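hi! just following up on the protien thing from before. the input was this:
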Amino acid sequence: MTASAGKTNPVIFIHGLWIHSSAWEPWITLFAEHGYTATAPGWPGDGATVQETRDDPDSLNEVGIEQICRHYADLIGTPDVKPIVIGHSFGGLIAQELLANDCAAAAIAIDPAPIKGVKALPFSQLKSAFPVLSNPGNKKKTVALTAKQFRYSFGNALAEEESDELFEKWTIPGPGLPLFEDATANFRKNSPAAVDTHKADRGPLLLTSGTEDHTVPAKVTKEVFAKYADSGSITEYQEFDGRGHSLTMDSGWKDVADATLTWLSDKGF
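and the predicted 3d structure came back as:
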């Protein structure tokens, strides 16, 4: 993780459920143009490409939140200069955990999966998770979305054609375990979805949401934001009007990326 001449802190992008890490490639290029060294390592069990992951989905069986967190913490190690972590969906939850555990200098959680303690459970969120949670056996399996399910969960704010293009280009099977862990977080004393929102000595955090997101509705992210209210560290919330869960990879991705770059610059990164 050698930093570029322009910026000190490297950037690590973390993907969410059902999307391959290579979907971050446009962001990596844009951030490089702004002086950042950026990478997007996959989850443990991911193949190097979308097709390789589709061809060997069983490698992701039973990969859970704790294992994913440890994977990224191990990749980061103990560098003199901590990275900035930017995560989408479940990657946003992981980014918050890495920040709370002093693995990162700053974090941006885009449409993040809810952390323990969040009680809001909108219908669209339940429907988005239904392909996995409807079958208890999926807890130990890897599950793929259909194009129709993807359109509801990710592409609802897009034309059907664009949603289907994103589905074909970036989607991969995903482990069911993280969804089950998140769904039961409030009933488990030591849930892997728990984040220390009261930690005062940490870097800045930005939580963002799309107003039309079905998978993680803005109401959910606002409740996460409220849980940081008594933290002594910087926590901010940003909303993208008319955007759904695909906002990091659809045709409007650069608006989100530019806002992210502006926020980092404002915070001195």
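The mean pLDDT is 95.
Residues 11-266 form a domain with the Rossmann fold fold (CATH 3.40.50.1820).
cheers
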